[in-house]
Amino acid sequence: MKQMSGAELIVRLLERQGVRTIAGIPGGAILPLYDALSGSELIHHVLARHEQGAGFMAQGMARVSGVPQVCFASSGPGATNLVTAIADARLDSIPMVAITGQVPLSMIGTDAFQEVDIYGMTVPITKHNFLVRSAEELLEVIPAAFRIAMSGRPGPVLVDVPKDVQNQQVSFEDFPPPAAAEALPASDRAGIEEAARMINAAERPVLYLGGGVVHSGASAQAVALAEKAGLPTTMTLMALGTMPVDHPLSIGMLGMHAARYTNFVLEEADVLVCVGARFDDRAIGKAARFCPDARIVHIDIDRSELHKIKQAHVGIHGDVGQVLEALAPLVDANPRPSWLARVNELKAGHPVEWATQNDPRTHYGLVRTVAAALDDEAVIATDVGQHQMWVAQAYPFRRPRQWLTSGGLGTMGFGVPAAIGAALAEPQRTVVCFSGDGSLMMNIQEFATLAEEWLNVKIVLMNNNSLGLVYQQQNLFYGKRVFASRYRGAPDFARIAEGFGVPSVDLDSAPNPRGALTQALTTPGPCLIHVSIDREQFVYPMVPPGAANTEMIGG
Amino acid sequence: MIEQVAEPLRQSTFAKVVLEIDVNNHPGVMSHICNLFARRAFNMEGILCMPVSDGKRSRIWLLVYDDQRLEQMVRQLEKLNDVRAVRRHGAEHEVFERLEDFFH
Ligand SMILES: Cc1ncc(C[n+]2csc(CCOP(=O)(O)OP(=O)(O)O)c2C)c(N)n1
After folding, report:
1. Is the Cβ–Cβ distance between A381 and A405 less than 8 Å?
2. How far does residue A385's CA lie from ligand 1's centre (Å)?
3. Which residues of A touch B (CB under 8 A)?
4. Which residues of A touch B4 (CB under 8 A)?
5. ipTM for the assembly
6. How many helices (H) and strands (E) does chain A have?
7. Do A123 and B3 touch (CB under 8 A)?
8. Looking at the domain covering A189-349, what would its CATH class be?
9. pLDDT tens profile A253-302
10. Where do the Thiamine pyrophosphate enzyme N-terminal TPP-binding domain residues begin and end (chain A) (predicted)?
11. CATH code for the domain of B49
12. pLDDT tens string A288-333
């Protein structure tokens, strides 16, 4: 017979689940849990400076490892500060378990100090959530939270634990076993056979990979299918890295800021094989005009994605890795010389601007120079804005989980804490975070955490002294009425970084910017790399709002 | 960032459907289900919920209009962790009809 408090039970269950790092911030309602955590010899607690930072650190750890990761916050404002990071995890299908303190059970519903209904608030942004009503329930709830977070399509789970439940004693025979993912759905043989027939009969097929390929660990299977069947392959923002960009079959990212030729290739497709992607509006433009001539095969672990935006001719519910493995032997080996020649002709006819820029003081040149100084083991994170799209366009991603970006929610402030999380989970890697001056200031307090943990995180700040993407929209679509998108002040980011204890390099004034950049990237430990970027540089090409993907402007 | 330019929501038809949903019985279940419908502006015409068997489960009956989003709603319902089964019945199902007496 074992006996312990609810708080201690949570810590033991987390240890047994394999959790080794937790980011969080304590407060009154979660102090019993922190007290129990202080006794753990296995778990390293990282003290974030804002709960949103803690949430994104957990996400960073989960995005590089694929394993659910944990963040802690206290009740009330601590919990509400987590909300953005949870919503972000939901939209990008990231496995995460957020544990929040809550006021004691008897005080719930009385507007007690620091009471908010975080359970109610997170219903629409979690995969599932729990309000724990007794310490005994924890024996079921904690493993269930992990099981739900990692099974099928991954996602965030919130567990709200009242303070008295943390303090309550519980006796039990034995610990429950650590959670494992649920069995994968049985594969749909008939659907797979029909998909193979469609691919074999196709003349201009295209493979369209989404984040599900990363989550399923199926990039090798996807590349193998593409190679066997001769499928030009496009990737969503979330799937960058699943096929190396320089693979002869890669046609790069599709959608709003794709290379023109990528969207033109899709326009000509007669069969579209969508794998673990969800026909997001940023990827497909005007839905009715996306791939107008294509019959669609859609493979997804989440049944509700099938036929949601585009009616698929064959919808296959299943794990994309398993389905691709079953599909490959049924497709004919086919080099498709004429279709691939046509793809190459479109590619040659619409060269991209970023391929040729090398000056590290230009936006694309900076991205390319960073890439040239690193190998594929590096992790690349971004914030949200123009810089994010420039990196997505120009960085040569070659490995799944190399690329961490806030895709679905598009959250400014994601980059720095997510990069910290990546470095916590995989300290042997160099982690680079491309950021904009707007985004950087949304979680800049985490520089303190970064300095404290002394992680190998390089922040490349592309500073245009504006909310660049907003400035771009106003110039292009709001009659150049620029409003609330340019900063009047200009903070000295180098001094800010140094104030936090993070060294910095300014490429603007460096006599040899390339050398200074390489040195900063290869010196272990954190660093802020500052580069001024011309505000008049816009992200091109671009599909304007409401247009079809083929109606791109610029670039 | 840029505003979505969406097709207007299509109108629902007038055919009604009864959904019968088996769920785990705990205080949060109704909010999970109602949230799903509310946020998609999918009107619930009627709702009825009673515990079944030993009180560990409940059965929820929903009266909704049949609309082309119904299939998507059912799939979303089936994804909820506490939903164990969803069954679809035609409007001829009498659960709500028999309740009519209480409303007149
Ligand atoms: C939290 C949050 N608030 C607002 C936005 C809307 N938004 C998208 S991009 C952007 C500007 C980003 O500016 P910056 O980080 O400097 O990057 P840049 O576009 O200049 O590269 C804004 C305000 C957002 N995505 N996230």
Report:
1. yes
2. 5
3. 119-120, 123-124, 127-129, 131, 148, 281, 286, 288, 302-304, 307-308, 410, 469-470, 473, 477, 545-546
4. 281, 545
5. 0.88
6. 22, 20
7. no
8. alpha beta
9. 999 999 999 999 999 999 999 999 999 999 999 999 999 999 999 999 99
10. 4-120
11. 3.30.70.260
12. 999 999 999 999 999 999 999 999 999 999 999 999 999 999 999 9
